[in-house]
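>> received
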Amino acid sequence: MKSVFIFAFICAISVAGASTAYPSGECSLTGDETNIVPLRREVYDDGRIFDITHRLVPEMPVWDSKEGLGNFLWLASSMKNGSVANNSAMKIGVHIGTHIDTPGHFYDNYYDAGFDADALDIALLNGLVLLVDVPRDNNITAEVMKSLSIPKGVKRVLFRTLNTDRKLMFKKEFDTSYVGFMEDGAKWLVENTDIKLVGVDYLSVAAYVHTVESHRVFLESREIIVVESLKLDGVPAGIYSLNCLPLRLVGSEASPTRCILTR
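>> returned
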């Protein structure tokens, strides 16, 4: 009876304890056993924090592939097979899921010079950001950029498009009809705004037909950071504090990153 009471107490803490590192969504008693299910969330602290990073799962889309990411993670050492601890390993591209592009992605001279993921400006990746909704019937052209009326002085903007409505990041097959920046839209942003961080909601900042051109416009000056594959569904448009931290990958032209928004 005492052990059942202890288990019940543990369950109550697990379900209700927001201060725990790994809160659980369910907890039930079966005799002397507990069944605990981890709680996976997008929104934290009563709507104050939004995780805008996509989970890395086998079904997520990969550029120009119908097969998705596939099995990228495995238990290299398993306790079930006699190891003293579980140790996972993974093999993954740096442009998978929510990630950051650096100038070396489309400029070989910058790649050779070392403008890699480790050289990114952390100050620019963290600070006030504006989340805007893009008109849903178009790629991001110069006309679309004008219509958004983004004020001077705004340095970071996340662009939510039809990609979010269509849930393209939750579909395994790569979709070339995604919304992105046309070359003239990228040029208008560079020439007429103070934006230095551009965030988008699919695998590429550039529309498929302008993949190279738009990327080169954004990355040429080394002044703009591009964040791709953001998870923006369910987040109200407006001003937030952005925290975006890439891995310190020396020699890599991109890096997976964890991004959150805070009210």
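>> DSSP finds six helices and 13 strands in the chain.
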